[in-house]
Amino acid sequence: MSSETTGPKSQVASLTADDYARLETLDAEALVRFGLERFGQRIAIASSFGLEDVVLIDLAARTGIPFRVFTLDTGRLNQETYDLIDRVRNRYGVDIEILFPDPTEVEPMVRAHGPNLFYDSIELRKRCCHVRKVAPLQRVLSTLNAWMTGLRRDQNTTRTLVPKVEVEELTGRLKLSPLADWTWDAVRAWVRENRVPYSVLHDRGYPSVGCGPCTRAVSEGEDLRAGRWWWENPETKECGLHVR
Ligand code: SF4
Question: What is the domain range of residue 21?
Answer without folding.
Answer: 8-236
